[in-house]
Amino acid sequence: MKIGMISLGCPKNLVDSEVMLGLAQEQGHQLTRDAADADVLIVNTCAFIDKAKQESIDTILEMAEHKKTGACKRLVVTGCLAERYRDELREQIPEIDAILGTGEVPQIVEAIGIRHSGLGIQTVPLLRPNGERVGSGDRGPRTDRPGTGDLPTYLYDASTPRLLATPRHYAYVKIAEGCDYKCAFCIIPTLRGKYRSRSHESIVTEAERLAAQGVKELLLISQDTTFYGIDRGDRGALARLLRALNRIDGLEWIRMLYLYPTTITDDVLGAMAESSKVCKYVDLPLQHASDPVLKRMKRPGTRAGYERLLDRIRQRVPGVTLRTTFIVGFPGETDADFAELESFVESVGFDHVGVFTYSHEEGTSAYGLPDDVPPAVKKRRQSGVMRLQRRIVERAHRSRIGSQVRILIDGPSAEHDLVLRGRLEGQAPEIDPQVYLTDCDPSELTPGQFIQAEVVGNRAYDLVVRPLSEVRSA
Question: What is the pLDDT of residues 397-454, one digit of tens each?
Fold first, then answer.
């Protein structure tokens, strides 16, 4: 069969998509990038906020049209939206043939469920994990109800087939799944289950295989990467893992995403500072800086505590890049709360900031609070923080002009044939600003290559660089 995959949402969801593609390929299925050419279409969905849910629904409906006009004979919906709204999807979009939640990734081969025979097309029945056949009126067990004991438990390992969907020079590695925190705005623990770490050996084995395939940058991800090992009572596990990964030949950068304020320990910071391949990069979603808002969000810490933590990170890891995200418009957020947030952003001087407007999500504890900040106010506050951050970044960029930097080439730029895209050690793919490389011959540079360059300017958040003389265009 020809299989088409549309993966939505975060890198953690992308890894699930890559595993499903690997399992399908292992069974002899072919993969296609053309939805109109696919026999089976898979939509791996996101359901974190309203905007993500709408994108997922729109994509499902778009793919459903291919059952009417294209080669598609079967539509499979997977991921967080499937986990959260299984019954609603089945009732409202009858074109869907199989629905798999976040804990049912290994069942993708059965869900594809079509094989050719001399009599035409046959559907392979979808089975529950215990082998029980799932009838046409019941496409899988509900696992989206907390407290029933059947929350998702699946976690892939080094032996699981996986087909990378990223450029070949970088890859995400999910070191754990699930979350034990109860942040008021977040539905993830309900959708992904309790935190569960992979073994040290499994991660190292996968990293070694990826490096042998040409991966230069490894991005470690989970719902809380610094919680790694704590669920098993091993509080030094992450630092040991970083040092082990640092010894793998072929890897150049090891980057951690999704850290958490209460689990960033000195041993992790020490491993970051001492390991040459571990990026001096801290992605720390703080969500707010007003103490009353943080308390209502059920987030740990205070503004003063966060400032002490950030000072400690900068002291332990000189030259570190700091990235964070905030939510504006949380229930009860006042003008004074927002002013506190702006003051915090100004005083800290983050390298990268993302700002989301609060989304009132059923199933979260915040859903019981009045969504009392008007949408226009949420957008105005979001824009205000981003204008402030742009001034901070542009000031920092101007101070870098004339300096030399090491960049990783990601590929061609969409704006001009002679301009390439790249990144610094302090820039993660997809989420952070990037570097534009000019005055070069693109035919002499390839994605995954590292070069030295000189900073010559900036375009808002992005830097403009030119290669040093040995790799410049003649």
Answer: 999 999 999 999 999 998 888 899 999 999 999 999 999 999 988 888 999 999 999 9
Quick one: average pLDDT of 32-49? 93
Residue 382 identity: Q
Q: What is the pLDDT of residue 68?
A: 85
* Token pair listed for 164: 């990378």
Contacts of 136 (CB under 8 A, 6+ apart): none
Question: Tokens standing for 419?
Answer: 């301009």
Q: Which residues contact 295 (CB under 8 A, 6 or more apart)?
A: none
Give the span between the Cα atoms of 102 and 196, in whole angstroms. 14
Element of type H or E holding 435: strand 435-437
Q: How many of the other CB atoms lie within 10 Å of CB of 219?
A: 24
Q: How far apart are CA 21 and CA 173, in angstroms?
A: 16
Contacts of 470 (CB under 8 A, 6+ apart): none
The Cα 44–Cα 348 span in angstroms is 37
Tell me how far apart the alpha carbons of residues 248 and 217 are, in angstroms, rounded to a whole number: 12
CB within 8 A of 451, min separation 6: which ones? 406, 407, 409, 445, 467, 468, 471
- What is the identity of the amino acid at 83? E
Q: Which pLDDT score, from 0 to 100, does residue 151 have?
A: 67
- The DSSP H or E segment spanning 377 is helix 375-400
Arithmetic mean of pLDDT, 8-34 = 94
pLDDT in tens, 357-377: 999 999 999 999 999 999 999
Residue 391 token pair: 């001034």
Q: In the predicted model, is pLDDT for residue 134 greater than 60? A: no
Average pLDDT of the chain is 90
Give the number of C-alpha atoms closer than 13 A to the C-alpha of residue 390, restricted to the C-beta side.
Answer: 8
Question: What is the DSSP track for 254-321?
Answer: EEE----GGG--HHHHHHHHH-TTB-SEEE---B---HHHHHHHT----HHHHHHHHHHHHHHSTT-E
Q: Please enumerate in sequence order all residues whose Cβ is within 8 A of that of 386, keeping only pairs 6 or more positions apart, or say none.
A: 353, 355
* Predicted local distance difference test score (pLDDT) of residue 48: 85
- DSSP designation for 35: G
**Full-model pTM:** 0.90
Q: Which amino acid is at 269?
A: L
